[in-house]
Amino acid sequence: MNVREITPAVDAATMLAGAQFADAFQIEIRDHELDARRAAERMMARQPRWAEALLSVRNLLVAPLGLKTSGANPDVPRDMIGIFPVVSETPDRLIAGFNDRHLDFRVVVDVTPPGGVRQVTATTLVLTHNWLGRAYLKIIMPFHRLIVPALLHQVVAGSLDRISRSGASKAGV
């Protein structure tokens, strides 16, 4: 299954008013039981090792600037997927993200309703607040364009694992 870049099909004004950046990537999947939470968990709960290494370097570089390295906040318990707090959720859409001094961002995971081939779309929205946010966005953009498709491939891999396990259990393995 190939990931393709598409025009974002979300209401950015509602999800992150004033967002200056939006992109979206989509993949098709045959998992009829997949909902938005499960897709987001497969995408963000665990990243490829190379992406984790990049995130570690990023955290080392931004910590001295006072930027957040996660959306976790011990004072405000939240529902989290990976390092991202869940902002809102329905079976077909999960929105995660947080606000920081330099920028606010949201990642929107949409799953089309069951029936035939389903589509999982990851849309990213960003609102920068200052020169640091604009510089940060410019620096991370090439990595973002590699990481999001890799995360979408994890949704397919998780579905294949689940389908092969259910097939093995039906066969008595």
Count of the separate structural domains = 1
Mean pLDDT: 82
**Percent of residues in beta strands?**
25-35%
Q: Radius of gyration, rounded?
A: 17 Å
Separation of the first and last Cα atoms: 27 Å
Main sheet summary: 7 strands, antiparallel
* Shape by Cα distribution: globular
Structural class: alpha+beta
Compact overview of the structure:
With 173 residues, the chain is an alpha+beta fold. The chain has helices spanning 12-15, 36-44, 49-62, 131-170; strands at residues 4-6, 21-29, 80-81, 84-89, 93-99, 103-111, 118-128.
Walkthrough of the structure:
The protein has about 170 residues and is an alpha+beta fold. The protein has a single domain, classed as Alpha-D-Glucose-1,6-Bisphosphate, Chain A, domain 4 (2-Layer Sandwich), CATH 3.30.530. Helices cover about 40% and strands about 25% of the residues. The protein contains four helices and seven strands; from the N terminus they run βαβααβββββα. The protein has a seven-stranded antiparallel sheet with strand order 1-2-7-6-5-4-3, covered by helices on one side. The chain is globular, with a radius of gyration of 17 Å. It starts with a strand and ends with a helix. The model is unreliable at about 170-173 (pLDDT under 50).
